[in-house]
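Shape is hard to put into words, and the shape of a protein is harder than most. The fold becomes a row of whole numbers, each drawn from a learned catalogue of backbone shapes. The outcome of that step, for a single protein, is printed below.
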Amino acid sequence: VQLVESGEGSVQPGGSLRLFCAYSGDTRSRACMAWFRQVPGKGREAVARIHAIYGGSTFYTDSVKGRFAIGLTATGNQMYLRMDSLKPEDTGVYYCAAGPLTPNCARDYSAWGQGTQVTVS
């Protein structure tokens, strides 16, 4: 599975950004897809996850519920993360990830994008 991200940017608090992740490769190896966020000194946190092949169920960490939306574009093999009402604590490097099907897509991500910087200030 190959993942290529686009859409980095800087916005003021309350603004919006959209990130994209172009994917290719074995379908079963990307049955689950996710966006992770990493800030200096901390590990990567999964902020949004999606069943990319089976039903499209989505999962969000509490801090982004109601503000972020993960989805797949209708054409073009892309996953997106729509981020609204951005806060300074949303600042970080965002990675798209893919992995095989697991319960709630909670683990076992093995393919990663290159990371894209989001700054809210």
User: Anything to note?
Assistant: The chain is about 0% helix and 50% strand.
